[in-house]
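Notes on consecutive records. When two proteins share a document, each keeps its own sequence and its own token line. Never mix them. Below: protein one.
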Amino acid sequence: MAVAEALALEHVSLWRADRVILDDVDWAVQADQRWVVLGRNGSGKTTLIRLASLYLHPSQGTVRVLGETLGRTDVRALRTRIGLASPSLADQLRADLTPTDIVMTAAHAALEPWWHTYTDTQRQRAVALLGQLGCAAVADQPFGHLSSGERQRVLLARAMMTDPGLLLFDEPTAGLDLGGREELVASLSDLAGDPARPPMVLVTHHVEEIPQAFTHVLLLRAGRVAAAGPLPEVLTADALSDCFGLPLALDCHDGRWSARAR
């Protein structure tokens, strides 16, 4: 069932010892929105995704995901309704697992196929998703033998395995060369442009990696929301310069953004 507000953070803060990682964050993702989260290293972007994917609890504040409140729900069940692709997830996967197994295990938010029993229908869906993302030829090869771009597309397929209510992408283009990056951005653009797909959140460092059809932007600086709202209105040279702490020029051509120091 669709939830109008797929993700909501209310006065969320998180700290470790004397370090503040997120500071009084208010943010909501509606069902028809595609958000990109931008900010410098250490600004809290990945922490935000870990909260949204239910792998962290805030030190203060409320996190609601798909109508459920973190701390008052079974996160194991709720995680199966969240599609997550991140480098940290890839690091937890055995290199000898096949892409088919990796995608299929998302049905139970698991990392190993032997933890649960899977049906032929689930395996067929995993194979079909890999095919949609151009990975049919490597579906039965060891994950560790794939290129960086192929691995990221496998993780995208895994994120969609359960027809999730929310898709989260944490720096999916990290480590890719130019060709791999552009192929992945094109795949994300196709996903974002399909109105039948769920709301999405993409974390990145670079405006050049913002896919077409993304609608909103959240700018984080030192754990606080510097700006948030519709992408064409909020993503300005002044706002980006303030977020990254240096004067930047910003351009948009054919729906793709670019930035450089002034």
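Protein two starts on the next line and is unrelated to protein one.
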Amino acid sequence: MLGAFVRAHRERITPDNPGGRRRTPGLRREELAARAGIGATWCAWIEQGRNVNASPEALSRLADALDLTAPERAYLFELAGRRDPRAPASEPVPDAPASVRALVDAVPHPAYGLDRSWDLCCWNAAAARLFGGWLHGEGRKNLLRYMFLDHEARALVPDWEDRATRLLAEFRADYGRTFDDPRTRALVEQLRRDDALFARAWESQAVIDRQGGRRIFNHADGLLTFDQHTFSPADRPDYKVVLLIPVV
């Protein structure tokens, strides 16, 4: 896919000096390589789909040479599995983004929003009833701190240790995109100091996607069962909305 993308965008560029007979539209590979300051062979290998270990800096020069728009550039780096060195950091907002707040407020079932450090940015009344004391009172409410440090979580979640370690593996998938954020790094270092299970699980380097599925809670109202679904809004993909739909 990366090779097809690069070739298609190479062929749409008007050469600087289009004189002479040209068998293909747009730039030749050699011309693109010269523009990007990379080897012509390396450029050919990318288009041929070979396993080329391209550095972010080389991809950045390639994106400039292809005159990519911001969405096209982001897509190039996504296809290559690399972080764009020029990508601006998404700054946290004082309150939940409007898209997150709207979805959380719209559903009657437990729902909450998470920012990139997994701090809760909003929640609805149903979530407050489910999670009890955690969502009452002042102060920043972080899902990892709750799961690993709050004894209420150990009582609420029947399979607590398994869920806690899986939750951390899901968080690490996000951490790979936000580890340069001082607030997120400070959270990880604090939890490594304060909880032995967190420290062991962090060293295991497990990484999984944020997963949905069945969730069971040992609530004061009895054993409650939900199906969990997680979404990220298009306007702020560094945020998440978590919905818990009751299983009846």
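For the record: The beta strands are 111-114, 120-123, 213-219, 222-231, 240-246.
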